[in-house]
TrEMBL record, chain A:
Enzyme Commission number(s): 2.3.1.50
Organism from which the protein derives: Magallana gigas
PANTHER family noted in UniProt: CLASS II AMINOTRANSFERASE/8-AMINO-7-OXONONANOATE SYNTHASE, LD36009P
Protein origin, superkingdom: Eukaryota
Official protein name in the record: serine C-palmitoyltransferase
TrEMBL record, chain B:
Record-given protein name: Serine palmitoyltransferase small subunit B
GO biological process: sphingolipid metabolic process
The protein's assembly and partners: Component of the serine palmitoyltransferase (SPT) complex, which is composed of SPTLC1, SPTLC2 or SPTLC3 and SPTSSA or SPTSSB. The heterodimer consisting of SPTLC1 and SPTLC2/SPTLC3 forms the catalytic core of the enzyme, while SPTSSA or SPTSSB subunits determine substrate specificity. SPT also interacts with ORMDL proteins, especially ORMDL3, which negatively regulate SPT activity in the presence of ceramides.
Taxonomic classification: Eukaryota, Metazoa, Spiralia, Lophotrochozoa, Mollusca
A GO CC term assigned to this protein in UniProt: endoplasmic reticulum membrane
Membrane spanning residue stretches: 33-54
One Pfam family here: SPT_ssu-like
Native source organism of the sequence: Magallana gigas (Pacific oyster)
Length: 448, 75
């Protein structure tokens, strides 16, 4: 017969659920999405099949951008240095890394990333998604085993599938399941031939973006050393946002960065730029510089973006002479603790660790997230709501992304709006006891 | 006026809870109307059936368990 015209479940979902609440997703914004953003108003006259602009703009509080350290600004020292660099170097490099695309700016940026992480050397890629999907195939291949967390990001899953290795998933953040899989892998070996695996790679993320949970890194390192596997740590959301010095989840637990074989991260979330990096031993980075897909086939990072990374990392390391970096880290930590404590006291169900700046607020039904999104936009707060397929169908949530550029007044306003909508929608489900942590043990750096 | 407003907000809150939890909040107004008509019709027919048949059933069960007949009647 013929291939069916439509897929039963996906088409049903996209026509009958997603299309009807489409005004909550993909909203057009204009200008810089900093602590406040400008959303362009639109309305729909035919039940969300099409939208028309009404001509108005609303300035709303921005809890949707991954702006953890507040570098999403169009003025300030970073922006001035970027302007100067674009005047010197031009807008694009027009070449791949291995062919005339390696500027002294890239060398400085690689060195700076390596110093920031505390590893021997680092390698940068101009696209964050491609850092995962194009570099995992050059590290593992057929005959290797990948143990990846079940809630890993799509870029990691794509990279693992492209590599041709066998993939096994383990339960989210469950170290017993990981140990069981490792032991089975070492005993049973490859499926048909029973030869030992060439490499076993454990792929985890630092902070998971949909749950806000932090990986149990000391346990993973202990298992890695015991069973002689390699560890690939994707710190997309945790670099800059977690840890006493903002150096990621390794810093948060106080471990040695040389223990993690491959430290990957992105500059998109905390540093206000684009692209990703992979840091590790000199041998690893030498191999990647020769054999990675992005070194050969994709153009290397634009000079303006590279300068933004260099400027923001210099600020974070304190090399520009001010305490701006430390101030931002402490402000983010204070904001995280305060926001989470107040929301939990109000009675919402939150996921995630008490220190993660990603705050998912659970509302278990798709219609509730639609109402939440519309009400909060009307009252002046812009949040991201997620449903299927990013999360399971019955665990839809709203996700707040806190930032160091949010002041206490903005947080109080957001909390008031959330509480009002929570009373209207009756989503204050939590019966847990009030939180035991508070923001008082986070010292803020005062302006001198 | 205050009483009318509080009654209105009470009804709005409960109608909102009903539409959210049954997910007809996402449907177009015509579909919401049809669903409500169907639901009200179904509930009214089942209320009528309850009213007509349930008292007779209850009396029959009572007589079966505690009644004075030796053999259950085959009606």
């Amino acid at each position: 017969g013929f291939v069916p015209l439509y897929q039963t479940w996906e088409s049903f979902y996209s026509w009958y659920v997603y299309r009807r609440i489409q005004d909550c997703f993909c909203r057009p914004v204009s200008g810089v999405p900093g602590a406040k953003m400008v959303v362009i108003d639109r309305e729909s006259n035919d039940h969300r099949w099409s939208f028309q602009y009404t001509g108005g703009h609303s300035t709303v509080l921005n809890f949707g951008s991954y702006n953890y350290l507040g570098f999403s600004q169009n003025s300030g020292p970073c922006a001035e240095e970027v302007e100067q660099t674009i005047k010197n170097y031009g807008v694009s490099v027009c070449g791949s890394r291995q062919e005339l695309g390696y500027l002294d700016l890239h060398k400085q940026m690689d060195r700076l990333v390596a110093d920031y992480l505390g590893v021997e050397d680092a390698y940068t890629v101009p696209m964050g998604f491609a850092t995962n999907s194009m570099n995992i195939p050059s590290l593992v291949g057929k005959g290797c085993l990948i143990l990846s967390d079940e809630l890993n990001h799509a870029s990691l899953i794509l990279g693992c599938r492209l590599s041709g290795a066998k993939i096994k998933t383990f339960k989210h953040n469950c170290m017993k399941d990981l140990e069981k899989n490792l032991r089975e892998a070492i005993v049973d070996k490859q499926p048909r031939t029973h030869r030992p695996w060439k490499k076993i790679l454990i792929v985890v993320e630092g902070v998971y973006s949909m749950e806000g949970s932090i990986v149990k890194l000391p346990e993973v390192l202990r298992l890695k050393k015991k069973y002689k596997a390699y560890l690939y740590l994707d710190e997309a959301h945790s670099i800059g946002a977690i840890g006493p010095h903002g150096k990621g989840v390794v810093d948060y637990f106080g471990l040695n960065p040389r223990d993690v074989d491959i430290m990957m991260g992105t500059f998109t979330k905390s540093f206000g730029a684009v692209g990703g990096y992979i840091g590790g031993s000199q041998a690893l980075v030498n191999h990647l510089r020769l054999y990675s897909h992005s070194a050969i086939y994709s153009s290397s990072m634009a000079p303006g973006v590279a300068q933004q990374i260099v400027s923001s990392m210099n600020i974070m390391l304190g090399r520009d002479g001010t305490r701006e970096g430390e101030k931002r880290i402490q402000q983010l930590k204070w904001n995280t603790r305060y926001f989470r404590r107040r929301l939990q006291e109000m009675g919402f169900i939150l996921y995630g660790n008490k220190d993660s700046p990603v705050v998912p607020l659970l509302m278990f039904m798709p219609s509730k997230i639609a109402k939440f999104s519309r009400e909060s936009l009307n009252r002046g707060m812009g949040v991201v709501v997620v449903g299927f397929p990013a999360t399971p169908m019955t665990k839809c949530r709203a996700r707040f992304c806190l930032s160091a550029s949010h002041t206490k007044e903005m947080l109080d306003e957001a909390l008031q709006i959330t509480s009002d909508i929570g009373d209207l929608l009756a989503i204050k489900y939590s019966k847990a006891e009030p939180p035991s942590y508070s923001e008082n043990d986070v010292p803020l750096v005062e302006d001198s | 006026m205050g009483v009318v407003n509080s009654v209105k907000s009470f009804l709005y809150f409960w109608y909102l809870q009903y539409t959210l939890n049954t997910s007809i909040y996402m449907l177009e107004p015509l579909e919401q109307f049809l669903f409500n008509v169907f639901l009200v019709g179904f509930l009214s027919i089942s209320a009528y059936t309850f009213y007509v048949f349930v008292p007779a059933h209850v009396v029959q069960i009572y007589e079966l368990i505690f009644g004075l007949r030796q053999v259950p009647a085959a009606t």
